From TrEMBL:
SMART domains: Fn3_like. Residues 459-494, 571-590, 780-813, 886-908, 1165-1198 are annotated as: Disordered. Residues 470-494 have a biased composition (Polar residues). This is xylan 1,4-beta-xylosidase. It comes from Dendrothele bispora (strain CBS 962.96). Belongs to the glycosyl hydrolase 3 family.
Amino acid sequence: MKPTRGSSFLLAVIGVGLTVLLSVLFRNAHEVGEGITSARKVELVKRDQADNNSSPNAKRDAFVQALLDQMTPEELAMQIHMTFADSVVGPTSSNSLFSAATRYAPLGVVHDWYPLSPPPSPSNPDPNLYNALQRLNLNFSSSTPPFDSHTPIPFMQLGECLHGVGSFKQSMFPSPIALSSSWDEDLVYKVGRAIGTEARSVGIHACLCPVLDLGKEPRWGRVQEAWGEDYHLTTAMGVSFAWGLSKNATHAASDAVVPVVKHFIGHGSPQGGINAAPYTGSGVREYMMEFFRPFKAVLGRGGGRGVMMAYHEFDSVPAHVNPFFYDALFEEWGFDGFVMADDTGIRMLQNRHTVAPPVSSPLGDADTISQWLNAGGGIQFYDFSLDEWVNTIVSLLSNSTSNSTSPTSPPSLSLKTLQSRVRGVLNVKWDLGLFRPLLSSGNDTEPVSASSSGLFSSMSSSVGTSSRSTPQDNNSTTSRTGSDPDSDPNSSLFVPPSISTYYETLTAKHLPLTLEAARKAIVLLENRNGTLPIKLSMSNSSLDSIPKKIALIGPFGDILNYGDYSGPWGASPVPPSTSTSTSTSTSVVNASSSGGRIAGTLREGILGYLEEFNSGQSEEGKVKLVTSVGTNTWLYNAQYGVPSYLLSPSNSTNSTVVDASNVHASHGLFATYYASTDFTDPRFTRVETPIRDWGLYPPFDSGLNTSSGSGKVVVLPSNNFSVIWEGELTAPVFDDVDADSSELNEVNGFIGVAVGPNTTARLFIDGEVVAESSYPPPASLLSASSSSSPTGSSSSSPSNLNPNGSPTFQTGTFLPNIEPLTYSIANATIPPPGAGRFTFEGGKKYTLRIEYQTWNLAVKVENVNSVNSQVGLWWNLVEQGLGNGTALPVRGDGEQNGGDEDGSDPSLGVSKAVEIAKSSDLVILAVGANWNSDGESGDRGTLGLSVNQTQLADAIFDLGIPVVLVLQGGRPFAIPKYYSRAAAVLDAFFPGQSGGQAIADVLFGAFNPGGRIALSVPYDAAALPVYYNYHVTRHALSYTDIPSFPLYYFGYGLSYTTFSTSNFNGSSSGGAQTFASGETIAFRVTVKNEGDMAGSYVAQVYLLARVSNIVRPARQLVAFKRVYLDAGESQDVSMTLDVDEFLPIVNRRYEWELETGDYTFALLENGGPEEMGGQEAPKKKKTKNKKKNAKKPNEEGF
């Protein structure tokens, strides 16, 4: 343990344009006690420390230890075995595989489930699917020896919740890198609170987030999941998000979840940006001082109770078995929650890292599992089958009793070690309140025999019954002794059956927050000559300054773009549309308008502003919007969901519709759901966009979104069903039509309906079959009467059906989210799967009809996107040519466009976009990246736009028209030539479901952008790394060909208004001009909005380089605050810095030390140096030092 050095230390606070110098003298630390060391241990959740004489976890620890002592080896193994939900639910969605899944012991952990249940109703007060399975598991535990000898152990459901619940049917917020760019801790807390509430509403106990990797390598495809390049910002945002998820660490609340931090640790700095590649960086000290800090903070004060290990290796030791990581977690920090592997991360010890024998070796699995558990690991993530996992652990326990000391002895595992790994799981289940309703009255420490306590005496003991309760089922209303878990606010054992906490209700409630988050995340990078906001008001601009024609160009102008972990195409869920439910006995539709809708796509958002402006203008005064996608989002023809605002349920031909006039105003198509696969037996109707899935259960209609709000709940009887969607599609206006350019208002593109496995779909446009997916199905699934369309139209004669059906019937036609480079090279110009060629005329309405049939024939493969059935109405509006050998249009240079044998040529789309844009007054160029380039395994070697988007951007900029560059994507773009030429630049990242509205709000000035980038923007990928907190030698010299500095530094961002700062000063909690270990430093500054528009300012305080035992970075963020001010308003802003958390360094002996000496803190505009716009040159002024006795430092760690 290293004491602090015995010399004075000086705190200097430097403000922009002013200086206040404060100082403090410490006594020699040897006189006051030991310094900060890595061995310090502090309780993880300090709020529970009622007094210093008793442990806040004494009752829990006693209960868990007694329970562990009574558990069989098989039970212990099951508590750390992750069960894929469909391995229980089964193809019939009736928990038919429960017996097989619990053949060794009751369920311990369940994942990839997301059970969206019907809402409670008078006929079925608790139809909750999670509740039913939890009761089934508890009943099995309490009635089956030997498990009935102790308190039954509930299972814990895990779920992905990165920026929305992984059902992909609930709220979808901006990605973490976008949320971090808000620099707004309160906002991030609110988003975490919303996601935690929505997760618990579907029975999730633990969310696999936040990702706390530092994004120091932006080529890494998962950098979008992180909170930026800086450990202080990541710590602040991670704590805020986790604090929201966990409801201020009240994990047992019925609307709170356990945060599971990942990836432990250093996963965000892989060599070359390749996912799971070895760590690249400066070594142990960087880990301790930067990578460890966010994890330690979230586990210590953010409510984190789980840890997921990382794929990569550090110092040639895989993270999953690295003792350096586990020693920090358990020995130094005193962590007592659970540890889990990442998906197949344990198997990687064998097949990639090769630190364990291969699978083919007789001892391969045993050695691998032994290494994992003995190192400190716990829950496995789909690495081993149930039999492999349980039987291997039992065998390892047997080996541990052989007392053999031979070096060739087989791998082993002690019972004590196994119990220790399970203890973390049980600790968290206790913290969640899962045991609370199961304990006998007056005794909450000793495990109770469930069979003797009578807790479940009246519960049905049947196994394999339907998990979807019907009015005749008793499972949902069974009474139990003891406390009622359905109404216990201190237990998350069951989901309360309430409409107010129903997932659809919560999703609607959180819609405004998705818009607020998207707005506050947008960063204004450039705004030359006040180009933005776009002026539409005569009161603020002259008529000449209002653009007559705006061209929206680029592949991101009219698509949803949520980012990684957002379902198919990175665009689920589709923003909500009006839903209707009808009783088939009355066949009446009564849908209400979806007024007040928040736009999902950018074009929809822009149209909202233009329609409002144009409504009061003459024809000559109206602002026109023309559109061209120009090219694909990546290197091949992809599938893009048709936006719901372009769909209307009008003109339905469905015979069950009596009055369709009431659904005209809704967005989406009119859907009729049938209980059969042959379009017979209709059960309910609704208006929706056919871009969705139904999870692991049959479709249902909640009846909550009818005009009366009292619709009937209707559930299809099985997963084998059919649907017909009908209505109109309105093609966007590509060009304002005149006699000379009518061909510019047409696009020869693709359209289709993507389907999952064991599913078919047929798309009719104006009565003609245009596209088919996986059609026909195998002949064995069809009867003679169902082999043709319900309308009587069929493109495949029943007598000629392939007995095996379509070649894609068993695989489906959805493109994967990330295709490898080899796919792009081979398939750059071919149509997407299931595509039909179609010529779209701008502004024209087309009658659509989709016929969809699906059969659920098998248990799914373990995966977050494994569902029974899914559908996606898509199109591709990149100009493809005529596709029939006909001569193609002539380009503007007089040369005929080329093309492949199908008539497709990537340059056609660019040429058409240029022709459409060249007569406009302003171009909004929407480019960037989405699901097919940015995400897990979406690593890049370059950071520019894709080649095809670069061609488009070059052509548009060459027009000489003012260009507003709108970027979307999950990483920074190294595109200096566009930044320098653009009239304005916005970066919206992955903005979530309300991103289109948010960008439009910023473009037209309804919201003043105030975000600051969390990842420095490099000039070129060759200049990496470019993070702001570099050591001075990193940029002491520069390259001879490109700049080594970033284009935009961490913390950079502009506003439509201007701000001034004054009165910057600081003091510590221990004295006005002193600080010591155990104290906090408070920084204060006055910020004034000097402009005429409301806006926000981010005050940023940095610790500057100082004389130290080790080399320190040029600047390091230590405090920040975003403040929102009306025009002319000023506010005193306070920021705090915890001395022990952020100021100690790891000295040359790798010991924690709080150094004495001079510390200089500066208020800067961003993390860049003065010559890069980081700060103005300060004026210096000194005040007299003031001595103070040093306090004994708290020990390091928690």
